[in-house]
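Protocol step 4 of 6.
Sequence for Heat-inducible transcription repressor HrcA (Roseinatronobacter alkalisoli) entered exactly as in the expression construct, tag removed. Do not edit the line below.
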Amino acid sequence: MPETRTSADLLSEMNDRSREVFRRVVESYLGSGVPVGSRNLTRDMSEKVSAATVRNVMQDLEYLGLLDSPHVSAGRVPTNLGLRLFVDSLLEVAPLDNADRAKLDSTLGSNERDVSSLLDAVGGALSGVTHGASLVLSPKHEAALRHIEFVSLAPERALVVLVFVDGHVENRVFTPPRGLTPSALREAANYLNSMVEGASVTELLARFRREISRNRREIDVLAASLVEQGLAVWENEGEPQERLIVRGRANLLDEGAGTEDIDRIRTLFDDLERKRDIAEFLELTEQGEGVRIFIGAENRLFSLTGSSLVVSPYMNAERKIIGAVGVIGPTRLNYGRIVPIVDYTAQLVGRILSDRQAE
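Step 5 output, structure tokens:
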């Protein structure tokens, strides 16, 4: 089963009956944690079908990679791919329970003035309400930077160490571009450190975007006449991997025409590619979205434990993402209940920190 299949692709291959069987298997498993058999499903189906029919549907779902059999005679359980399909397409998120809301409100309504103490309270509240392990990332530091270091942890995981001029040190884990080597990370860090000059991460990213734009304009100006004369041609024009191909380079050099321009263009392309890579590193360490669910191997920090992570960023008064809260648990999480809890907690923390910022 190709791993590139999206949830939409898989869903399109399922009819109403197979979708219902799949949904009921997942919901039953998430509730009980035990494999689900065809006979039990037959009693709950919306249409009257035999256990043999349900069994055939479950076999088809297993062929699609959505279900698995722990043992030959056992029922089915959803695979990580199946859980991803369920979360993306079939999950029904319940409204936040009033009792859960009250527990979160009472805990976060303490008079703790220290941000660290407040975030400890958040972690305790999340853990208590969800009966899972909580994850709390403290507000991002926006002071001027002194030093940046990238550390390769695994082929698909890297750590950025940010050292600020006020002595604060912050570590952030991110997923680097595919195929990136540790030596490329070191080169990027060296290049960044030569340009830090007291800028924050956000300011540094803005600086790189401006330089990329300047490089792009300079390349266009230098190359325009060569292209117009038919001495050069763009390959993949407008794409990130575009390059200028010089035609009849030997003749061009013999005539002594534009050799300095060609060398300058080559240098600019190299510089542009490096700046694009570094800008991508910075964007990866800065980016954040709404509530996100990482299942099994998608969650590279905890993939060895067969766990899931439900996480949401929180924002300050300027609507900038400054931290995140989340819940870590087994893949058999009650996602429909956990998602609104994490979402509400993130909003609550952001609101409290924004209010304190305004005081």
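Step 6, annotate. The mean pLDDT is 76.
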